[in-house]
Amino acid sequence: MKMNKEFQSIFRLLKKKRRQGYTFMMFPNKSGSIRGIYFPFGILISFCCLLSVNLYFLCRYPLRVVDIVNREQTIHQAKQLIKEQEKKLQRIDSAIQATHKLEEKINQHNRLLLDYEVKYEQVKKNISTQKTLSRAGSFRPFQLPAYTLTSADTELAKLNVLNGNLEFLEEELRSSEQKLKELHARYTAYNLELDYTPTIYPLVVKGYITSYFGYRRDPVTGRQGSFHEGIDIAARTGTPIRATAAGTVTIARNVGTYGLLVEIKHGNYGYSTRYAHNSKILVKEGQTVKKGDLIAYVGSTGKSTGPHLHYEVRFKNQPVNPRTYLP
Questions:
Q1: Where would you tag: which of 179, 203, 284, 304 has the fewest CB atoms within 10 A of its CB?
Q2: At what angle do helices 92-124 and 155-195 cross, to 10 degrees?
Q3: How confident is the model at residue 23 (pLDDT cuts 50, 70, 90)?
Q4: With a threshold of 0.70, does the pTM exceed it?
Q5: Tell me: domain 208-325, CATH 2.70.70.10, correct?
């Protein structure tokens, strides 16, 4: 009620003032008549409103100018960023082609990995190098997803293709890396096993085999059906004998019909070798030897008809044919 009364009083005042006006008197500096200009109240109020509006916009104009300048700088920076992004996006085509080249290289590496696995199995199983293992279905070519891109495709679509290719390549590289690690571990283990496998010739010079592994006529007694557990290699007395694999000397002394005998146990792989009828032993029992180390000299001690090396290879303490292990 109080507010309504105040508004009513203001409206009454304006209504009275509307009939009134103001006269502006102008006095000359020199002689002359005084002039007066009459302004109605409504015109004076309109003039004041216009003046207030102009003052408001005049005071606000510098702030608007600053805002416009900041926005123009932001727009300029955005344009520069867009240009840089467009330059990078233009490289997408070449990047996609690079992923396909990398796909070919991965397939080459996978084929090479498979060849190494085949060679490993051949060496492991003593398979002839002329015999080829079947590889049907064992090689899985890696192929990127097929996309058909045209000039109408947007850069965003190409970018999605590139990201997809990179994800497939990352997965395939991880798989290939794991296969290489496994193959390297197998090669490392097998290389260690080869050190303890009798694979070299027991004499430093080539001799000729005078008696083979298996049943034969005893050269001393002439009895038929005696089993020969090794091979006899004829050589001159004093010819150096070497260890055909790394290991530990278990026997280095005179042993009955073997004469001066050297026996070597080759690690924990089940192999052992014997070198008999020596003229001199160069190692001691318990001594560790490497593949190729000199261990004795050829002689004719024990049950022998002449200077030669009696060479045995045993696997799990059972004699096997040494010729299988000769180079």
A1: 284
A2: 20
A3: low
A4: no
A5: yes
In sequence order, the β-bridge partners of residue 241 are 203, 296
Helices (H), the chain: 2-18, 41-89, 92-124, 155-195
Residues 195 and 181 sit within 8 Å (Cβ to Cβ): no
Residues 204, 294: Cα–Cα separation, whole Å: 9
Q: Give the pLDDT score at 201.
A: 95
pLDDT in tens, 202-222: 999 988 999 999 888 877 666
Q: Are 196 and 266 in contact (CB under 8 A)?
A: yes
Query: Rounded mean pLDDT of 6-14?
Result: 63
Give DSSP secondary structure letters for 160-205.
Answer: HHHHHHHHHHHHHHHHHHHHHHHHHHHHHHHHHHHHTS--S-SBSS
pLDDT for the residue 114: 77
Confidence class for position 244, pLDDT limits 50, 70, 90: very high
Token pair recorded at residue 180: 């290489």
- DSSP type of residue 220: T
What is the β-pairing status of strands 208-211 and 231-234? Answer: antiparallel
Q: Which residue has the tokens 């890396």?
A: 177
Question: Which burial class, exposed, middle or buried, applies to 293 when counting CB atoms under 10 A from its CB (0-12, 13-18, 19+)?
Answer: middle
- The domain spans of the chain are 92-125+151-195, 208-325
- Answer yes or no: are the C-beta atoms of 148 and 158 closer than 8 Å: no
